[in-house]
TrEMBL record:
It holds the Pfam family Orn_DAP_Arg_deC. Its EC number is 4.1.1.96. The lineage of its organism: Bacteria, Pseudomonadati, Campylobacterota, Epsilonproteobacteria, Campylobacterales. It catalyses: carboxyspermidine + H(+) = spermidine + CO2; carboxynorspermidine + H(+) = norspermidine + CO2. This is Carboxynorspermidine/carboxyspermidine decarboxylase. Its cofactor is pyridoxal 5'-phosphate. Keywords: Decarboxylase, Lyase, Pyridoxal phosphate, Spermidine biosynthesis. It comes from Helicobacter brantae. SUPFAM superfamilies: Alanine racemase C-terminal domain-like, PLP-binding barrel. It is an enzyme of class 4 (lyase). GO terms for biological process: lysine biosynthetic process via diaminopimelate; nor-spermidine biosynthetic process; spermidine biosynthetic process. InterPro entries: Ala_racemase/Decarboxylase_C, De-COase2_C, Nsp_de-COase, PLP-binding_barrel.
Length: 400
């Protein structure tokens, strides 16, 4: 079957996605928290029918993600949440968001004051129609995060994300908190629950007097809940205690934990060249198709498919045949990494990059006119289905 999948192609494995969802639902049932899928990390919407029975809705970073979540997972009419946070909104975006959002979170008091009237007017209409009004929240910065590298740290010095404690106190004195029903904290990235435990200490140190005044607290994403070895009992205990102590509803909004280890990117070896070692040039790009390999940096696990035989990589310079896997763009640093195998790579061999469903499709580009990978799924019964392909028209439409 793998040899029949076109290259390049992102492939979702439904059974692995279901396993993640069942783990997330276990956390919900045991802790009482509500989990939303963060579309910034996982937006493979053709799989969202699988998400509906398990998750409470979606969380968006702006208008387009909010519309996608509303259209594919549902909104207040179907009992689902559409939670939106953006560092800054435009008026035309806000007028569209109030039609679909259940929660709107602001990054500053000034943005809240600017759009307060639009939300209040929308809520008047919703209440007249017997519908649940929009909840409003503020994102706060507790000045503590263990995220590394710094490019991913939302609490880095001079961060633009979240209201720092001193500015929050000034805002409360000037505007009060009438109309604010929730607070939002996002300080994690691929981290375990012990980090949440330490972070909660900083949240309480700066904002504890306000927590019990809220209806809900959103503890953001970056909780690596579905990773093997994650401390689920500690997470559940922390969430239960937090809900009980402050009598609030608690949201989590992971994206990566939803799509974690539930699919791969399949590529093809196009050429092998020599320059102080063997360099395999592929029909995929780190820069265009898996940018976390350069940003994080991140070294994905690789499996080689040659003549119907699968072989996992042995690491760097361990097995007899070592190759630098590179992309097909002009960027000299378009390098995925060095990998070694017990058998040689040849043109036409397939390369499977593991764990490539989250933070790939949502971030890919057509840099250099490189084609976007197709989208496919391995169904629960083991069959492969090709969902979408991309051609020249997609590149042209994105450039004018």
């Amino acid at each position: 079957m793998l040899e029949q999948i076109p290259s390049p192609c992102y492939v979702l494995e439904e059974q692995k996605l279901l396993s993640n969802l069942q783990t997330l639902d276990y956390v919900q049932v045991q802790s009482g928290a509500k989990i939303l899928v963060a579309l910034k990390g996982f937006a493979f919407w053709r799989s969202f029918e699988l998400l509906k029975p398990y998750l409470y809705g979606s969380t968006a970073s702006g208008l387009y993600e909010a519309k996608l979540g509303y259209e594919t997972l549902g909104g207040r009419e179907s009992g689902k949440e559409v939670c939106v946070f953006s560092p800054a909104y435009k008026e035309e975006e806000m007028r569209e968001l109030v039609k679909i959002a259940t929660h709107i979170i602001f990054n500053s008091f000034s943005q809240w004051q600017r759009f307060k009237g639009i939300i209040e007017k929308a809520n008047e209409t919703l209440i007249k129609e017997g519908k649940t009004p929009i909840e409003v929240g503020l994102r706060l910065n507790p000045l503590y995060s263990e995220v590394s590298p710094m490019i991913y740290n939302p609490c880095s010095p001079k961060s633009r994300l979240g209201i720092i404690p001193s500015e929050f106190e000034k805002g409360v004195r000037e505007y009060g908190l009438e109309g604010i029903s929730g607070l939002h904290f996002h300080t994690h990235c691929e981290q375990d629950s012990d980090v949440l435990e330490r972070t909660l200490g900083h949240i309480k140190a700066h904002f504890e007097s306000y927590l019990s005044k809220m209806k809900w607290i959103n503890l953001g994403g970056g909780h690596h809940i579905t990773r093997e070895g994650y401390n689920l009992p500690l997470l559940i205990s922390l969430l239960k205690d937090f809900r009980a102590n402050y009598r609030v509803e608690v949201f989590l909004e992971p994206g990566e934990a939803v799509g974690w280890q539930c699919g791969f990117l399949i590529a093809e070896v196009v050429d092998v060249v020599q320059n102080e070692g063997s360099v395999a040039i592929l029909d995929v790009s780190a820069s265009a198709h898996m940018p976390d390999c350069l940003e994080m940096p991140y070294r994905p696990k690789v499996t080689k498919l040659s003549n119907g035989v699968l072989e996992e990589d042995c690491g760097e310079n361990i097995a007899p045949y070592t190759y630098r896997l590179g992309g097909n763009t002009c960027l000299s640093g378009d390098i995925i990494g060095d990998y070694s195998f017990h058998t040689p790579l040849k043109v036409g061999d397939k390369i499977l990059f593991d764990d490539m469903i989250h933070y790939t499709i949502v971030k890919n580009t057509t840099f250099n006119g490189v084609p976007l990978p197709s989208l496919g799924v391995i169904k629960q019964n083991g069959d492969f289905e090709l969902l979408k392909t991309f051609d020249y028209s997609h590149y042209k439409e994105r450039n004018g």
